[in-house]
Amino acid sequence: MINKISASIAEAMSGIQDGATVLVGGFGTAGIPNELIDGLIEQGARDLTVVNNNAGNGDTGLAALLKTGRVRKIICSFPRQADSWVFDELYRAGKIELELVPQGNLAERLRAAGAGVGAFFTPTGFGTELARHADGTPKETRHINGKDYVLEYPIHGDVALIKAEAGDRWGNLIYRKAARNFGPVMATAAKRTIATVHEIVELGQIDPEHVVTPGIFVSQIVQIERVATQAGGFKQA
Amino acid sequence: MSNYTKRSKQELAQRVAQDIFDGAYVNLGIGQPTLVANYLPEGMEVVLHSENGILGMGAAPAAGAEDYDLINAGKQPVTLLPGGAFFHHADSFAMMRGGHLDISVLGAFQVSATGDLANWSTGEAGAIPAVGGAMDLAVGAKQTWVMMDLLTKKGESKVVQACSYPLTGIGCVKRIYSDLATLECTPAGLKLIDKVDGLEHAELERLLGLPVSI
């Protein structure tokens, strides 16, 4: 029998190793799996590489994880926000490494990892500073059918932490509105995917035509209470 | 000296909206481009895309009705129109990169006469870099339009021979909608589409420091 339901966040988070690459879903504050991030802080793994679109908002969630000093490197597209002071301070103090990736390349590098693609040529970033490696050497490029492309490699996660709306014991997931964002693609890109859901339903209760992430991409689901997503990422009046 | 009035932000948004066609799939960038949505002619159906996974984005919700699981790329709450859809990030950027979006409207620091775009970084030392979807938006849509003031606050032209700020994309901008004129970027340089009343052609070229063909 398959049962991917974890009794608690602590149980779901066990076994995350030091040095792990952790894919964290969410865009701004929508779809951020705050409960799992708190669980990761509790769990204590360190020397982490975190992949998220942003680099934390305010003092909670991802920002709180960064504050523990256990994140060595962040791979993201948009770290600087009105309320990203935790990251800003760490970055300015040279305490965190940043790999800046155009948002679409970030999504596609995750997709490539999940789909078993070894690398891909993308037009995004060609001729820009982001077509260079961290050491300044140029990334491989190619001229294909009259257009220029940059070679980008997949981003594989050891674990993905994502937030979904509802799931069943096989791990099938549906999401809520634009909180879906990186969740489905990150679920495919990690060796192990842990998802929070607000509702656990019986097998067959999610219409198979509506399943967004099929259970094969999900390792564990944990039920959490529904808390309304808070505003974040912009200047509030 | 010619005697002319600049387009206001609202007039500029209205000017851009005029060129968007019925049935277009459009991404309006963060900032000024967002205003364009307010001026789309009534009776016309334009599907707005937001890179965080929305097609059919509607206006801001009424106060008190905000749902922060339904936000735009600027993280502001929005609404969804009937017929709208949600999808994940890889699909969302496939819509851009794959050339499915008709028009992407972006702000800019600088645009070159041949359509190179600089809009993500001023290259300032010590600044924290952030790119978001700018590079994907610049190269992906069928047409990339820039919406900006033609001159900086110091009076320098933002349309240049070659961008001095870090590039977002090469030769990707098709049109520049500005407070003084609408210009087309071509491999041979700038072409005039229109300009505000009273602005002499020679004065426009003087302000730009670049030739503009008619």
- Determine the CATH superfamily of the largest domain in chain A: Glutaconate Coenzyme A-transferase
- Would you identify the CATH architecture of chain B? 3-Layer(aba) Sandwich
Report the structural category of chain A: alpha/beta
Number of helices of chain A: 6
The largest interface is:
A-B, 56 and 43 residues
Overall pLDDT score of chain A: 96
Which band does the percent of strand residues of chain A land in?
Answer: 15-25%
**Which stretches of chain A of 5+ consecutive residues score pLDDT under 50?**
none
CATH class designation of chain B: Alpha Beta
Strand order of the largest sheet of chain B: 4-3-2-1-5-8-10-11-12-13
Question: What is the CATH C level class of the largest domain in chain A, in words?
Answer: Alpha Beta
Structural class determined from secondary elements of chain B = alpha/beta
What does the largest sheet of chain A look like? Answer: 7 strands, parallel
What spatial order of strands do you see in the largest sheet of chain A?
4-3-2-1-8-11-13
Number of strands of chain B: 13
Helix content range of the residues of chain B, please? 10-25%
- Gyration radius over CA of chain A: 18 Å
CATH topology of the largest domain in chain A: Glutaconate Coenzyme A-transferase
What is the fold named in CATH at topology level of chain B? Glutaconate Coenzyme A-transferase
Structural domain tally of chain B: 1
GO molecular function (chain B): CoA-transferase activity
InterPro entries (chain B): 3-oxoacid_CoA-transf_B, CoA_trans_fam_I, CoA_transf_AS, NagB/RpiA_transferase-like
Keywords (chain B): Transferase
Family (chain B): Belongs to the 3-oxoacid CoA-transferase subunit B family.
